[in-house]
Amino acid sequence: MTSALPTRIIRTLTVPLDADSFPGGLPSFLVRDDVLCWTRREAGLVGFGEVARFTATGPERFLEADIWWRHLVLEAEISDAVDCPGTGPVAFGSFAFSKVSAHESRLIVPEIVVGLRDGKAWLTQLTFDDGELTAAGARAALRRWLDADGDGPTADPATAEQSSPSETSPSETPSRDAKLSTGSLTEADWMAAVAEGVAEIRTGALEKLVLARDIVATVPDGVNAAEILRQLAVRYRECWTYGVDGLVGSTPEMLIQVEGRTAQARVLAGTLDRRDAEGMAGSPMEFAERVLAGSEKQRHEHDIAIASLTTQLAPFSEAMNAHSEPFILELPNVWHLASDVKAELTEVEGHVPTCLALINALHPTAAVCGTPTTVAGALIRKLEHLDRGPYAGPVGWLDAAGNGEWGIALRGAVIESPDTVRLYAGCGVVEGSVPEAELAETWAKFRPMLESLGISS
């Protein structure tokens, strides 16, 4: 199923805002459960409302979305007084991990976008209507969305830029009478699946397999998506916090970031729970260097992930560089082996590839699927007994100029009802993997979402 191509002309107005008027950065705008969100270090994009939507399933979902978006912005009427990545027409997106998933991939074009980047702040209004777009009207629309009930009185346009939503600095998460239950597989069954994956690797059928599991959290007093996003944005500011249509999380892994002709990615493979350092000799970082960077298993897993991305990106690049040695990425819950990759894009058939075209070539990487991809994907479907939906799929945004940021939807969850959330976590399985250790790693990766829900782990 695919959305029809847009037939109307979209019109957008982007005006500057005073970044000093919201000192808490973009997390201070996370006040509604239906907010669209992409933030890191208090910067990024936040969207409200919806003026257009694309949906699709199947193996061509990325290319179909690319065609839909390029058609939409081709004749757009754009007034942009800021002119930087993320201004003008913008869509937020979330795509299913699997080409056979029944989950609908989507692009959502919001009515209002607030952006913050390199000290610049802006406000964009998007519409298909014929009425005049003005800075005062855009600010008034923003104030309407920021009202607690979503349909309160319009703010005074003369003061809308100076007023800002309440700052939020959540240091403590309220405790809740929440309950956790197993998802598609029990812990024992999932460890058996890991053991079966290791056995397949030892036959030589594949080098690496990424297996995910799910758990379900029931929160009797209701799931507050805005609170989850605020918690994640503050606790995990080195990650990219995302919220798209009930998919929420904070990923440390950038699939592809495009600015002009420059593309960048951050690849993670190799994980160590920070709690493992408790009581160990030396500093925590020395422990991480010794146990993570010094592990043949972890380095092998990381090398596979880097090779997967660079091999797929190479045909689109005229120059590329990656760290010769991975670095230790320190997060509140875990350490990762990480490498950054940077490429200068080349023209393919007379055009610089769009970020969605790059995603179509890159996804799924070995970091979230395995290698060889086809063999790993088939084994995932056999062993996991779940549809990952948007988990481990691309999530992010793109603009009309071809810029965009797309992370891999990790450390996240899907809000399935007003009081239930399905959490996902996965592990890279190689020949040296031990099922009990992989299970413990999933709990470390569940921790960001559990914390944001007020559930101790």
CATH class descriptor name of the largest domain: Alpha Beta
**Number of β-strand runs:** 23
Helix content: 25-40%
The name of the CATH architecture of the largest domain is 4-Layer Sandwich
CA-atom Rg in angstroms = 22 Å
Provide a descriptive summary of the structure in words.
- With 457 residues, this protein is an alpha+beta fold.
- The chain has 9 helices and 23 strands.
- The protein has helices at residues 61-74, 135-146, 187-202, 225-235, 284-293, 296-313, 355-362, 373-384, 435-452; strands spanning 11-17, 36-40, 43-48, 52-56, 77-80, 90-94, 105-109, 112-117, 120-127, 179-182, 208-218, 240-244, 247-251, 254-259, 262-273, 317-322, 327-330, 334-345, 370-371, 394-399, 404-408, 412-417, 420-429.
- The strands form 2 sheets. Strands 1, 2, 3, 5, 8, 9, 10, 11, 12, 13, 19, 22 and 23 form a 13-stranded mixed sheet that branches. Strands 4, 6, 7, 14, 15, 16, 17, 18, 20 and 21 form a 10-stranded antiparallel sheet that branches.
- Strand 8 (112-117) and strand 9 (120-127) form a beta hairpin.
- Helix 1 packs antiparallel against helix 7 (355-362), helix 3 (187-202) packs across helix 9 (435-452) and helix 4 crosses helix 9 (435-452).
- The relative contact order is 0.17.
- Mean pLDDT is 89; it is low at 149-175.
